């Protein structure tokens, strides 16, 4: 399948999920519209929120491992948690993450991306060097964030939908729903 056709298919599916199904899926990984205003950013729970607060459908089997890894990183960056992520970590490429406080970026990764895909940190990151771009999933995730931004920008311009433009959005969970492969048979 050509990339343009594939992107159009993903966009079309995202519109169906966002416009037609969102109200019925509020109990599973619903993000309030006001929180989604940052369009392509995954929204993280408040500091101190636990993995147990996640809907059963999105409990990450790797959550305990991720929580330990994030705790170790938080210990390493102690005193710098509120500083912009690009000043605390190396190789922060996405503009929306550069100015985000370092501790919030860790929550976004731990409670957003890893839960949406059901993966451990090591799925995308080289454990000894989180700044490394050696793993394909990390590079793919950056591109998916950009795709998500395009979908949300387009979704907000559609005039024939019932929901207000600011209430229309998709995030990683919209398609992935806890699995790396959103097209898997059990999805």
Descriptive account of the structure:
This protein is an all-alpha fold. It has one domain (3-176): Photosynthetic Reaction Center, subunit C, domain 2, CATH 1.10.468. The protein contains 7 helices and no strands. Helix 2 (63-76) packs antiparallel against helix 5.
Q: What key attributes describe this structure?
A:
single chain; 0% strand; 187 residues; Photosynthetic Reaction Center, subunit C, domain 2; mainly alpha; disordered N terminus
Per-chain topology:
Elements: H1 3-21, H2 63-76, H3 85-88, H4 95-98, H5 102-117, H6 136-155, H7 172-176
Helix pairs in contact: 2-5
Counted by DSSP, the helix tally is 7
Tell me the radius of gyration.
16 Å
CATH fold title? Photosynthetic Reaction Center, subunit C, domain 2
String of helices and strands = HHHHHHH
The termini sit apart by 21 Å
C-alpha geometry: globular
The total domain count is: 1
Beta percentage is: under 5%
**Major sheet:** none
Look at the structure and give the CATH class.
Answer: Mainly Alpha
Report a brief summary of the structure.
By secondary structure, the protein is mostly helical. The protein has helices spanning 3-21, 63-76, 85-88, 95-98, 102-117, 136-155, 172-176.
């Amino acid at each position: 399948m050509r990339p343009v056709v594939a992107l159009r298919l993903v966009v079309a599916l995202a519109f169906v999920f966002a416009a037609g199904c969102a109200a019925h899926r509020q109990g599973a990984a619903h993000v309030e519209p006001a929180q989604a205003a940052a369009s392509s950013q995954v929204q993280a729970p408040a500091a101190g929120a636990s993995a147990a607060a996640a809907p059963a459908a999105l409990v990450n089997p790797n959550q305990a491992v991720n929580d330990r890894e994030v705790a170790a990183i938080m210990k390493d960056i102690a005193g710098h948690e509120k500083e912009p992520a690009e000043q605390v970590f190396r190789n922060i490429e996405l503009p929306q993450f550069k100015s985000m406080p370092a501790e919030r970026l860790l929550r976004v990764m731990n409670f957003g991306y890893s839960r949406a895909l059901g993966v451990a940190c090591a799925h995308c990151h080289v454990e000894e060097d989180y700044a490394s771009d050696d793993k394909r999933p990390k590079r793919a995730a950056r591109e998916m964030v950009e795709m998500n931004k395009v979908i949300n920008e387009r979704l907000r311009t559609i005039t024939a939908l019932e929901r207000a433009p600011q209430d229309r959005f998709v995030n990683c969970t919209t398609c992935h729903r806890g699995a790396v492969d959103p097209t898997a048979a059990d999805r």
